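Data availability (excerpt). All sequences and predicted token strings are deposited with the supplementary files. A representative entry, GntR family transcriptional regulator, is shown inline so that the format can be inspected without opening the archive.
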Amino acid sequence: MTAPDNASLYRSIADELKAAIRAGVYAPGARLPSESELADQYDASRGTIRQAFAALVADGVISSRRGARRTVLGGPRLQSFADLVSFSRWARSVGEEPSGRVARLEHRAATLVEAEQLALAEGANVYHLTRVRMLDGRPVMIERTAYPEPVGELVVGIDPSGSITERLEELGLIFADAEHTIDAVPATAEDARLLAVRSRAPLLRERRRTTDPSGVPLEWSEDRYLGQEVAFTVRNSVNRNALSRWHSGPEVS
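Structure token line:
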């Protein structure tokens, strides 16, 4: 049997620790074993354990403090948008079961904004999907996405309870790049009804245009999140700017 390489080993250790945290072996606020203790337990180097810790920090599972035992966080869980993962993949990564419910699917003329964002000619049509996304059955986000016709025709045949993005990838589309704009907006009457909140409750809005490797737009989406369920943060470095999503974050004000 071939020994796992370092990359798969640290990820395997991180996954085992994450499973133990979810199972309650390590409660929120508890300290994980030290690097040396885990290195002995997994017959791995301390460098590999540090990589596993880094993965758990990136997932928002443990504290980022160095020089002491890492502490299990009881609050937000982090997932980076730099990886351009779907809502469903992100949800599963933080131990939640994602699902979706279609509120409306229309084939109609593109609005001026949709035509501009999708680089469509005047008078072009789009497929527009309004869908409620859920975590373990709880509504947390409304997804309003416009697709150009070739993509929308594929969306029509996809089960909306699962990940549309993942299914489109299976059909050969490549979601390569995305631009995100984040702000806060009051819930409309429809938002309130779909998310079971009061009208004008504060919501986080993410507007996103996603393109394929050649820069052709695949979707233009406006997603609205419950502030108590999901929040956003931005990490800055000299090498890159990474937009990240938190689960169970602070309320928007």
